[in-house]
Design a protein that fits this description.
2 domains, 8 strands, globular, single chain, about 220 residues
Length: about 220
């Protein structure tokens, strides 16, 4: 998973997206609070009257969202413990202008990730524990390619708010721990060596790098 805090611009965008999620909840009448003793920076308790939920605010700068399996491979890290996922995505990867905010039921999101994990496991994908499994928010779910099994949560759950990114103050993350938490499945367009390209493709298709052949035509 790419480090989304690699550049100042990405730090600012992540901060804006997170704030957009909080602002959307507050505008809808929810009180948003950190949970004492919970070290995961994305997790919040939200309350409205007598109703209370535990949510995780997940941001993405490439319209894909990620959760990792836990070390015992028995559940999803963070996702297993929440009632809902507040997914905050850019409107587009290359030239983002807006934050799109969704609230997705926790059971629905767990089911999507369970389907994705089972499908990739059946297809013999290599999925190291602790590494994020990525799902597209805005592509329709499909069995082919297998990476689209479980996709489409952003299509099936309406946008609650569309907020211009330049209208949000780009402050630093709230804590150092927040800056270190890998909430995003963000992909950067970086130059690749042949060896690195083979390694990444091997991870994608669940095969050995030796099985990958690349032909470059000038």
């Amino acid at each position: 998973m790419t480090n989304v805090f690699k550049t100042p611009e990405k730090v600012q965008t992540r901060s804006r997206l997170f704030k957009a999620g909080v602002a959307t909840l507050e505008k809808a009448g929810w009180k948003v609070e950190r949970i004492r003793g919970v070290g995961k920076s994305s997790v919040r308790r939200i309350t409205k009257g007598s109703e209370s939920k535990i949510v995780t605010i997940r941001t993405t700068q490439n319209t894909w969202i990620a959760f990792p399996r836990n070390k015992d491979d028995t559940a999803w890290g963070t996702l297993a413990d929440v009632d809902a996922v507040v997914a905050v995505s850019v409107d587009e990867h290359d030239s983002p202008r807006f934050a799109h905010v969704h609230m997705i039921d926790g059971d629905e999101m767990r089911d999507r990730f369970d389907r994705a994990y089972a499908a990739r496991h059946e297809a013999n994908y290599t999925m190291p524990l602790g590494r994020g499994i990525w799902l597209s928010l805005y592509q329709k779910e499909s069995k082919d390619p297998v990476t689209l099994v479980g996709a489409g949560a952003g299509l099936d759950n309406p946008i609650l708010a569309k907020i211009p990114l330049d209208s949000i103050d780009a402050a630093e993350p709230e804590t150092a721990a927040e800056a270190g938490e890998t909430d995003e499945a963000d992909i950067e367009d970086e130059p690749l060596t042949i060896a690195e390209a083979k390694r990444r493709l091997a991870l994608t298709f669940g095969v050995s790098p030796a099985s990958i052949k690349i032909i470059v035509e000038g």
